[in-house]
Design a protein that fits this description.
The protein is α+β, with helices and mostly antiparallel strands. The chain starts with a helix and ends with a helix. It folds into 2 domains: about 100 residues, Immunoglobulin-like (Sandwich); about 120 residues, no CATH class. The strands form 4 sheets. Strands 9, 10, 11, 13, 14, 15, 16 and 17 form an 8-stranded antiparallel β-sheet that branches. About 20% of the residues lie in helices and about 40% in strands.
């Protein structure tokens, strides 16, 4: 009886041995490679990740961790492994927020029984996102002109094109020599705006552009009378500040004109009253 039990155990061991050995071998020898579709991505552009595992093991997924240029962890995600071992996924980014820094980002991927796989890519900037270097004041095409809007600021008409948000108000900050543009967003977007140099101007060092207090990438193009800007922002942004070295004085043209008219009226009335007074005496 004992010998029968031993025989059964031995047979069971022999049957199951390949499975344990196979799993152990896969755990020790499992290979993983990971890369991105492109070497560099513009701000706000999604990251396409591609990779391959030596073999698919059960329902285990590949864990993706992304670190910014300061080596801070900004994203964790999981990607499924296909039957052929291939791995594909898209990581969403944003303009600003956790993705505000330009530079080299690092991806570290982990999979069951594999040595961590690493790859890097460059991220940030607006040129590669399709923003033109020379901005002809929003007259690039008829389609751009169709989306052009305008608003009155002081006695100036400001032309702008805005996606992903609406402008609530524009106010000058005389102390900072800046214009503050309050917006309400409904997605990531971009503001293209033309500002007369009588409204805001700068010296050779250029403008500083802040989105919710954080310096952001922008494009600025100068003509004889105007500045044209391209300013990206992310969903949830509330304030864009354009800082120069000159901003429209507190008393604009209309205010100054009203003041002159008021003073002139007072002088005329005073003169008439004096004439009446002298005639009566």
């Amino acid at each position: 009886m004992k010998s029968k039990e031993i025989s059964v155990l031995m047979m069971a061991s022999l049957i199951l041995l390949p499975f344990f050995v196979g799993e152990s071998f896969a755990q020790q020898e499992q290979g993983l490679t990971i890369t991105t579709e492109k070497m560099s991505y513009a701000a706000g552009e999604s990251i396409q990740i591609e990779g391959i595992a030596e073999s698919k093991i059960g329902d285990f997924t590949v864990t993706i961790r992304i670190f910014n240029p300061m080596n801070n962890l900004i994203t964790i995600d999981e990607l499924d492994v296909n039957d052929d071992g291939s791995v594909n996924g898209v990581i969403a980014t944003s303009v600003g927020g956790l993705w505000q820094r330009d530079g080299t980002y690092t991806i570290i991927a982990n999979y069951y029984g594999s040595v961590p796989a690493t790859t890097q890519f460059e991220y940030g900037g607006m040129t590669s996102a399709g923003v033109k270097e020379n901005i002809p004041e929003f007259s690039v095409s008829d389609e751009d002109n169709a989306n052009l809007q305008s608003m009155i600021f002081d006695d100036y008409e400001l032309d702008y094109d805005l996606t992903g948000a609406k402008i609530i108000r524009i106010t000058p900050d005389y102390e900072m020599k800046s214009l503050i543009i309050e917006i309400e967003t409904y997605s990531d977007g971009e503001l293209r705006i033309t500002l007369p140099k009588d409204v805001i101007d700068t010296d050779e060092e250029g403008f500083f552009i802040l989105v919710d207090g954080i310096e952001t990438h922008h494009e600025a193009e100068s003509t004889l009378e105007n500045w044209s800007f391209v300013i990206p922002f992310s969903y949830g942004s509330e304030e864009i500040e354009i800082i120069g070295t000159y901003v429209i004085p507190e008393f604009g043209t209309i205010a100054a004109l009203v003041l002159v008219i008021a003073i002139t009226t007072i002088v005329i009335i005073s003169a008439k009253n004096k004439q009446i007074f002298y005639q009566r005496t």
